[in-house]
Amino acid sequence: MLKCLERITALRWYMSPHTFASLVSVAVLLLQSSPCSAQAGWFWQHPLPQGNVLHDVTFAAPGIGTAVGRSGTIIRTVDGGAHWTIQNSGTRSDLTDACFTDINTGTVVGDSGVILRTTDGGMHWTRQTSGSKRYLMGVSFTDAMNGTVVGSFGTILRTTDGGTSWTMQTSGSMEYLTGVAFTDAELGTVIGHNGTILRTTDGGASWSSQAGGTTDHLNGVTFIDADNGTIVGLYGTILHTTDGGVNWLHQSSGTRSWLHEISYSDARNGTAVGEDGTIIRTTDGGANWTRQESATADYLYGVSFTDSSNGTVVGVKGAILLTTDGGANWSDRSGGPRNRLLKVSFSDANNGTVVGWDGTILRTTDGGTGWIRQTIESMNVLTGVSFTDANTGVVIAGVGTIFRTTDGGATWASQTSGTTNLLRGVSFIDNDRGMVVGNDGTILRTTNGGEQWTLQPSGTSNALCEVLFIDLSTAVAVGGYGIILRTTDAGETWTPQESGTTNWLLGISFTDVGTGTVVGEKGTILRTTDGGASWSSQTSGTTDRLNGVSFTDAANGTVVGLDGTILRTTDGGASWSLERSGTNHELNGVSFTDANTGTAVGDYGTILRTTTGGATWIEEPKTTRSLFHLAQNFPNPFTASTTIPFTLSTTQHVRLSIHDVLGREVAVPVNGLRQSGYHSVPFDATGLGTGLYYTVLRSGLWIQTRLMLVGSAR
Taking the complete model, does pTM exceed 0.85, yes or no? Predict the structure, then answer.
């Protein structure tokens, strides 16, 4: 939220080129010597550097910057944002704001009272004792010793010893405090919900309320000196003062978009960012604001300019945008297409293919070090992939579409499936023999590499989500309402098995004809050791949807699912442990080529990689196009009731839920099939406390979110 260097006049970038080069060299050496450049858990391979929401970015010197975000994300650049390195934060808490007083000394804050401190440029981060469990949203240090942190329910914490100890200050407010800016150890301003502006002239010993002339929620604040400051907030609100906050004047932003953060490089040049990719710019101290083309519609949370030309913006899906010309042009440094990735198939340790939305195909020939996007004549959702060797593979698409390659994906040829049903799963045992499954109990079989596909009787009308060839004769298919089908004659006939559940089953893994595992919704894990004659339920330890599973032998297996869930077993599922994925994006597929080497894929182009059996993991590129749109609720903020609008391009099953700032689900206004078109859903917030909430709209293969603000009755 707050850009520390904009508050420290001693570091206004008046450095010689020699000094700056020396600083960069030192930072590079620090990062190169760091054992934490790859964080514990799974490692991001795509999109690079990572794909979690980024909440804030700050530069400690020209070229040397840090960004923080969800799931404990901290990333570092020493070349102006051209390249970023993941740092080990030591936490999975959401991180909201960062402040550096020099290239080595910085503080990061987040939810559950998290305060992290580094004195070596992020090579190591140490958790400090804040004495609070509140959601901390802003931090400001004027030097290495004196700092202030703000958060929910009027929380203000103060340190005079570099964070060794923190003291709770009396703010006189119970509002969410979202930002803080100090210009020296004594003079500071705090902002928050419902137009809250607080000012101190004695280092926080006392705080007085200032009148901003608005009740809108305020999100970002910056001061270039003791007198001149700017605040941004909801509905394009911009407030400006030239007398230290004695008077706040409204400036015309020219937008109704929510503004989340503001950065000034000097008294005249400022940039604000917010929802729907909004970037606005002033060159006359705020007298006039001009919208800039950001080339994104995603929510932007953080902005930092080191001078009038060079700036960095961060936001959702790991977005990182850079400009070197004052915002006339912005370049995307966050990695590649951000489409939802659904399935992954490796034919060996080096050759792998990932498929997903809008015809996305990504290919690696070096075990995931690099990924190349391939071209296919389809913009449909690609729902399945199966490769039998480095060159030969098949992908399936939504409406009965099948493509085959024999040259490693350089070219793809369309095959005639004989159906228009949605296809969901594909498996080949060799280059000739394969099966495809889909809606309405669809099972297709080929014995000649797909030159002909034959519809097989499945005996069910349930959707079939996945199929797996175990050997030349044996295969298993799973799907809706707990259905499990088995064949022992290469797919000519299928026999239903008793699963013991009505939950949808979404993933299969067998290590031999007898030993297999199936996963599905509501944390379902089923295990058989007799070829499916009987299935026993295992305790997963989660109720999240589980989408994919991969076992390398009877004992060692990995499961992936909703909210970045990765589960690992080394005893055949007798016990499952939650592994750190480093993301809260939904993971949809997983594939291991041996006991140590695996790849997981998911939303927003997420590709994670492990070479340690899942004990640690890595990431890779990203795309977007939606089948629906979640609009902003209105009114917002509100006290008792509001309306949540959304539009569907097709008839589909949707789930609309409300979550608090800790991610806990508090209400589900919609959960079911809805027709295409515009929908307006009333929501009664009676019983909810005041504060920040999220609306989340899901439709199986897509997720959108919006902020919702419940105010107090006045």
Answer: no
Q: What is the pLDDT of residue 233?
A: 95
Q: Domain 336-415 adopts which CATH fold?
A: Thrombin, subunit H (2.40.10)
In CATH, the architecture of 4-332 is 7 Propeller (2.130)
From the list 124, 121, 127, 129, the residue with the least C-alpha distance to 92 is: 127
203/159 Cα distance (integer angstroms): 10
Matching CATH number, 628-710, of 3.20.20.140, 2.60.40.10, 2.60.40.1930, 3.40.50.150 = 2.60.40.1930
Position 16 scores a pLDDT of 33
Residues of the chain with pLDDT under 50: 1-40, 619-626, 701, 714
* Tokens coding 711: 């105010």
pLDDT in tens, 242-278: 999 999 999 999 999 999 999 999 999 999 999 989 9
Give the pLDDT of residue 21: 33
Cβ neighbours, 10 Å, residue 347 = 18
At residue 37, the pLDDT reads: 31
Indicate the pairing of strand 546-551 with strand 536-537.
Answer: unpaired
Any residues with CB less than 8 A from the CB of 258 and at least 6 apart, and which? 219, 233, 234, 235, 236, 274, 275, 278, 707
**Gap between the terminal Cα atoms of the chain:** 28
To the nearest 10°, report the CA torsion of 587, 589, 593, 598. Answer: 0
Q: Which residue has the tokens 């083309």?
A: 293
Q: What is the pLDDT of residue 702?
A: 59
The number of C-alpha atoms within 13 Å of 314 and in the hemisphere containing its C-beta is 33
- Rg of the chain in Å (alpha carbons): 27
**pLDDT at residue 711 in the model:** 81
Strand order in the sheet with 341-346: 341-346, 352-356, 361-364, 372-374
pLDDT at 54: 92
Alpha carbon of residue 637 to chain centroid = 25
pLDDT at 369: 73
- List b or e across 90-123, with b for residues whose CB sees 16 or more CB atoms inside 10 angstroms: bbbbbbbbbbbbbbbbbbbbbbebbbbbbeebbb
